[in-house]
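Recall the central idea of this unit: under ordinary conditions, the amino acid sequence of a chain determines the structure it adopts. In this exercise we apply that idea directly, starting from the sequence alone.
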Amino acid sequence: MKFMRFTIQGEKKKGILEDEEVKEISGDIFKTWGYTGDTYATEEIEWLAPLEPNQLIGIGANYVAEADDLPEKGPDMPVFFFKPSSSVIGPSDAIQVPETIEEVKFESELAVVIGKEASGLKEEEVRDHIFGYTIGNDVTAPQYFHENGHWTLGKSFDTFTPLGPVVETEFDHKKAVVEAVHNGERKQNSSTNLMIVTIERMISYLSHVMTLQPGDVILTGSPVGAEFLKEKDEIECRIDGIGSLKNSVIKTRQKTTVS
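Accordingly, the structure predicted from this sequence is:
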């Protein structure tokens, strides 16, 4: 099923996308939900991010260019970072880059949505705790990477995590291909088989550090080919079976002076 969120006549709603129609639902998608009986055409609605994440966790440097480059053993401690929920936007929303930022990078990624509380999982237990998958764009401002290696600020600006268009619950992540099309030109195009740390290992690892909750989103890394965005650019992140996440880029005034 393709779960989604949308607005119509200014009201936020949840739904399931079926054959280009949106069937409205109510309730908690992770527990109990049901159809309301209302149906909308996709032309009638405005798309939102498909969920409001509890927390967003990303992993860094997780793809190689070729299968021959895969290490025999992944890192003992993968590089993880948090992104704030305030950075989340939906399909068609603009990525707003503060005018003080010199450049930002797009990073198309497969995103995992946790469906059940997860603590101390073995890798073979991970699949049972995944609700579904969506697409994420881990927009990044390297200018705000700390010299000591801290990444959080550079990934935390408002609008720096587009998500969508749907959460697909019937999806084989091992067959996924992650793409990015920048101003009409394809820049990223990699199978998830090129991940250094597998989805099973990263979620198992995280679950031994923290208890993951329904609605947590794990960004699983960006393939080789990510480039920089500028004002008026358009970036489209695509994964067959989930859909297309398309956002434009605008410049905005910084809220406050950062020094």
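The first helix runs from residue 199 to 207.
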